[in-house]
Amino acid sequence: MHGLGLIHLAAGRPDAAAQRLTEATTAAPASAAIFANLGLALFQLGRRAEALASLDRAIALDPSLAEAHDTRGTLLLAEQRPAEALAAYDVALALRPDSAQAVANRASALLRLRRVDEALDAATQAIALNPALPDARLHRAIALSHFGRHADALAEVDRTLALAPFRAEASNLRGIVLMAMGRLPEALSGFARAVALRPDFVDALYNQGTLLTTLGHHADAVASFDRVLALRPDHADARLNRGNALLGLGKVEDGLASYRAAQALVPDHREININIGTALQHGDRHAEALDTFDAAIALAPDNAAAHNSRGNALLALNRQAEALAAYDRALAFDPLYAEAHYNRANLLQALDRLDDALAGYERALELLPDFMEARLNHGATLHRMTRYTEALADFARAQALRPDFVDAHWNESLARLALGDYREGWRKYEWRWESADMRAARRNFTQPLWLGETELAGRTLLVHAEQGFGDTLQFCRYLSLLPPGARVIFEVQQPLLRLMQCLPRPVPPGAQIKLVALGDALPPFDLQCPLMSLPLAFGTTLETIPRRARYLLADPTLTGPWRGRLAKLPGLWVGICWSGDPRPHMQGASVIDGRRSTALASWAPLTALRGISLLSLQKGTGSKQLAQPPPGLTIHDWTNELEDFSDTAALIDALDLVITVDTAIAHLAGALGKPVWILNRFDACWRWLTDRNDSPWYPTARLFRQPTAGNWDAVFAEVAAALHNMIAVAARRAVIPRP
Hints:
By secondary structure, this protein is α/β, with parallel strands linked by helices. Helices cover 57% and strands 7% of the residues. The N terminus is likely disordered.
């Protein structure tokens, strides 16, 4: 019976072996070897309690039976009792010091006890005893990976696989090591190989799902975590990371459900509340998210990640001072927390503390040199400081880290255009359609994009407006460059339609231009081009900008009545516009509008001037400030009579001067050839270039730029002085010449 049991055991049939060996224990006085082998068979069948009893019986019969102690140690290790397992291995080795397998098993127990240096020594000793023992090499690879010696660990795990190609644990470890080395596609192959070898290998499935999430393959990651949970429904980390993958798919509610299921399993998990809060923030439920982060901090006051996330929620609630304090607390607990340095720097940039923001990004990059977003925003801060050449270096490094990094290409285009590098700037400007603000506005026409390469003869080109009114006003001039005989459909925003009836001037001979309002049905067309891609199509450089003093005409039948009304006002007739369109639906544009717009109160220096009459050109939310103008500043407001840009053009055409922030009014006045003073933020829009007070786009424009970020006082002091001089000149002439 005993001999037959051993044959079955050797043949990998533990069920048959257990049956024969059990019979052997009752057929005759059983030896220690029979009980030891029965214990091994029962262990292989997963009947661990019976196996342990059998091994204990074997050791009681023969305490010198090294194999029984060794098997007992392995069973105890499987039962998560590593200290007892180590004691069993030590007994086995005392009885048989040259057992390479026992030494390798001892290394495994030491790894479980986190005595990694001793485990490395034990695995190395086992290899010296038997260089072809896969367990020894596998445990040595694990120990090396713990010490961060990834190249050595990879070499050792490859030796393991050469000895045991079908060892799933080795393939899984190979994936772990490659992941630590940043070789992610190869790491994924390691996990996939481990799962193929053992479909129920929970750790490999979990690792695979985690890496798939990192790589952005969220649907595949969810599938991998689902397989884990089918095998181990109580795997809290799998539920947690499944929630991350669902969030990556935009399934916020499903992600929340997965997080809450993880929380039910481990209520005091340090990360789950943070992830729940993050999901709530994705759903714009920032107040609820804040409560969740507070709960995480209550569980673990030193949880730097919770303080960091709390700062993000406070920032979303526009509680900036509290957000800054939360980031500071996160960094007090973990000064090496790169993401907290990054988030803090983002807030400091929003507060116009640009030097401090720059230092924060630099610290984040010291800690994580490949932190792409920190590299991008470091460049964006340099851009705001008008250090464009340095910013370009950051954008190039960000692109080197990820060649398809949309915001790095987009920001590069803006820096190049600001520097006047139009040849490369216009080409990069095409990345705008991949940016978060512009992606939703992209038109998915089936007709091909026209960028100047295709002959237009016999074809109809749709030119469609994009972005703001000012962009349409600035770039509509390009229609005059289209070849003679071109058939063009020009789609514009409805408020510009009536004004565009006279555009462009001059129209190319024989050109046919049909105007269509945005949103109306389009006639058939063959090719299409976004309006702001026309500079690229025509290869525009600084020297070849279509530059005419006046390419827009106001309707004279509308201008005449305005002149009659203005004649009753003394001095120079000056139109003013102090605020842009906040566009809250476009985050980037909204932030910029906050910097380009002024408060009407900032215009107070103009109250000391005599010899001018101010007229409001302000529409939209900014016009509400007229209810409380600066004391002593009289502003005539007839904007309720301005139905569209044609009406506004007629009023501007009757004025002597327009003073405006960088908004559509600046472009309208410039296109009409009207003297226009444009008040710019320190980091002015790319179209106004750098270090100049004139514009190649508008010959009648004069630029006034903040000398430092946010410094409107200096701008208005300069404007007041320039207006004083203009009034003095007009007074000397006695009669103000007007068209």
